[in-house]
Amino acid sequence: MRDKKEQANSRKASQVSGHFSQMDVDDSEFNDPFQALMEKAGNHGRYQTLYNFVFVGGLAFSGAMIYMNIILALNIPDHWCTVPGRENTNFSLEEWRDITLPKQADNRGREKFSNCEMFQMNFSEITDWSAWNSNGTKTTEACQNGWSYDKTWYESTIPTDHNWVCAKDLFVTNVFVVGRVTEVAGSFILGQMGDSYGRRFVYYISVVFCSLGRLGSIMCTSSYTWFLIMSGIVGLTVNSLFQSPQIIGMEISREEDRSRIAFFQSCGWSIGTTLMPLLYWWLRHWDSFMWLTSIPTAMVLLFSKYVIESPRWLISKQRFREAIIQLQKIAKINGHRFDMTEKELAEIYSRDKQDVTYGIASLFAGWRLARNTTIMGFSWCVVAVSYFTLVLFSSRMAGNPFLNFLYQSIVEIPAYVVGRYMGDTYGRRFTNSVSFLISFVTCLPIIVYSTDERYENLMIYLATFIKFLNALTFFTVNLQCLEIYPTCMRQTGVALGTILANAIGVLAPYLVYLGTTVDIRAPYYILGVLFLLGGIGALFLPETLHKKLPDTMEEAGHFGKHDKFFSLPKPPPAAEKDDKLSSHPELTRLRRSETAP
């Protein structure tokens, strides 16, 4: 009996060893020898805690401010033509505007004073107002003496300082469009560089250029061309600013910590965007606000000695010596001893061949991977368009623009808590789809009641609830995207999602423009359709909960092949995973060796 059991175990070990590079689908989704290496170095220790706080959460906090501060600084408060002559009268501002300005319909169909026209008359020459007949004033002309701005909330913004209104009212919209376009280009270039030259290299490029670009834009507002160029530099590097440290963090941590890492980054982002409007409300001037919210990103460079290259990525490139150096750095801070040699590490991965990849095109190699890539890309598009539309729109809604922005930001933190719980309990796929579909339903009452002033507060609450759902969806989509793609293409895959998101995200500023100048319901018509399609599409993605990160193109191509459509994820037995790793004597020796005191 014992001999038969030993023979069975021998056959099992032989099968695993002989087919390590061509595992069956189920094994490839759970068998992860790299986790044994990380257990030796410490995959849940002091280094991971430091890394998550500083480079995942901390950089997300500062990066959110340097990325989003431009939205508040480019806000256009209510404005009207400056008409000289009131200083010679006893008229109130409202009475003077009624006399000198024509009226027009706003985005709700209500009458309001024109922002860009005035009556064609020299009101300074009128001496006897009792004999003046206002009914005779009908001819209008463009503002001749500049504009006056409502300073209830802002002392200054970039558009008020440089009069980017009326004939220049698309200046602001074009800044956001340039940002989206350069984000597409930057994600395409830096995403592939991250998989080709390393996550750390791209991280340094992103921090330096993002900081220089935003600080440069503060100093170049007097030249619109240079302001666009500097804003474009921020767009080129801002996405990889978040992606590179998060990918490294996930690749050096336990499987059960992946959602925790995504939660760290998401909370850092939300805290940054929550603090930002409060700072502007306090400072009231755009320049001091921009300096204060841009400098912290550059200060992250002070912690550069703790930045590592992903050992998982180095192993995928068969750079074993460098991988050991990085693992030893982690082990030292974690209080462990990592004494594996380059030869032993090479032996573990001796049957793995380095994947030949062709950039983004490799993400469409095979029907299953192409399908996953397409659906993930569309999910990113829906999340991005809805996010930026809601954020941009919130700062242009009635009421306090800072509180409107704050409401949109502060709901993100509880959304991430709910998203993490649902994603870890019911799976990423179910959470993603349900959130999209509820967002679609919420758009319906907004479309029906948004034109009625009596429901203004209700509209704000519903828009904030959609933002809550958007944050929840972003959390799961981002996590799912990181877990679907193989190590050799992970940053490229995330970058592709960002490319598509920003390519479609170019529409967001124009949706806001339609909503603020034409019809307030217009953005929600479009968002509602996108939410519905996103909810349906998300159901056809594979579940990634309790699955190991795929390392090869082959593993990614088979990922989720045996998943059942109507099912919820279950964790594999721990004993089963340990048994599948037992065929590697080097890993067995690692697990039995003692850690350093």
Automatic annotation (TrEMBL):
One of its GO terms (molecular function) is transmembrane transporter activity. It is a multi-pass membrane protein. Residues 10-20 have a biased composition (Polar residues). Keywords: Membrane, Transmembrane, Transmembrane helix. One of its GO terms (cellular component) is membrane. The keyword Membrane applies. The chain crosses the membrane at residues 53-76, 201-218, 224-242, 262-283, 375-393, 430-448, 460-482, 494-516, 522-541. Residues 1-20, 562-597 are annotated as: Disordered. Its main location: membrane. It is found in: Membrane. Residues 575-597 have a biased composition (Basic and acidic residues). This is Carcinine transporter. It comes from Drosophila mauritiana.
